[in-house]
Design a protein that fits this description.
Length: 294
């Protein structure tokens, strides 16, 4: 049953290797707890499973992932008529405190791009940063790009996102210029060649991208906490601050559900609150200071 489910995710749903490994890990963990007949599982067994996970030291977010995988697995079994009901459907996961992602402010983002690029590796790094911040790409999407995915004359890139969903990512003029500069130094400009290469003509690894970003951040910002997804978060936050158009940002990020995009409204509110605290006279006064005379 589990093998059939994983095959369904791979072939029919076209899930990524990373996502498949996550489902595999969670279902293996479930089988470590419950070795009985899968068709005989009941909701109280699932409740005991979540309690067992908590006893194992897992945090709420990890328990949510485990329960989500189990729900998806049993939804598949119900659809295939291998079981009659989904025992995980009604079991609630513990609530996890939502951690807001870190973002760069606009001044930090500007400083990050002040460094001069001249060597091939520097031109490549500049183009990668422009795509991560200027187009909001995920790290996996960036690494997966081929030269043929670019339409620089039209100002966009064809991106394969989560679930192998395709979208067009608009490219600003700085991004287009950086990509042109990198392509002039690229070791192999065939359409099916990797856009970003590491050693020789091999596709760059995610780890190399992360390492190169940290190196640039240390030089430009004096901080090594920068990572690719922080640039994506900054892209979305700065767009929302300027436009307020959450639906457009959802499309640009490739989010299937706008609820995922709504986290940026919290970040935007934090920014507005900081502006208020810094600039508004009433933010610095106490009620006694502003109370009218009797």
């Amino acid at each position: 049953m589990i093998a059939g489910f994983l095959d369904h995710l791979k072939v029919e749903k076209r899930y990524s290797t990373h996502t498949l490994s996550g489902y595999t890990r969670e279902l293996k963990r479930f089988r470590a707890f419950y070795a009985g007949d899968l068709a005989a599982l009941r909701s109280h067994d699932v409740t005991h499973f979540t309690g067992w996970l908590r006893h194992q030291g897992l945090q709420a977010k990890s328990i949510q992932r485990a329960l989500s995988a189990l729900r998806s697995f049993y939804a598949y079994l119900v659809q295939r008529k291998l079981v009659s009901t989904n025992p995980a459907a009604a079991v609630r996961a513990p609530k996890a405190k939502r951690k807001l992602p870190r973002v760069l402010d606009t001044d930090q983002a500007a400083r990050l791009f002040e460094h001069k690029a001249s060597k091939p590796a520097e031109l490549r790094d500049r183009a990668m940063m422009e795509l991560l911040y200027g187009a909001g790409l995920r790290l996996a999407e960036l690494v997966r790009l081929n030269i043929g995915d670019l339409e620089l004359a039209g100002g966009y890139a064809n991106v394969i996102g989560k679930g192998n969903k395709e979208r067009r990512a608009p490219l600003g003029r700085h991004c287009v210029a950086a990509l042109h500069a990198w392509l002039e130094a690229h070791p192999d400009v065939q359409r099916d060649s990797p856009l970003f290469t590491g050693r020789g003509r091999n596709r760059i690894s995610p780890r190399t991208v992360q390492t190169r970003l940290k190196r640039i951040a240390v030089a430009q910002l004096g901080d090594d906490s920068l990572h690719p997804h922080m640039l994506r978060h900054s892209f979305a936050t700065h767009l929302l601050e300027s436009s307020g158009d959450l639906r457009a940002i959802q499309e640009l990020l490739g989010h299937a559900d706008i609820a995922t995009t709504q986290i940026y409204t919290h970040l935007d509110f934090q920014h507005l609150a900081k502006v208020y605290d810094a600039a508004h006279p009433r933010a610095h006064s106490t009620p006694d200071d502003t109370a009218p005379d009797a």
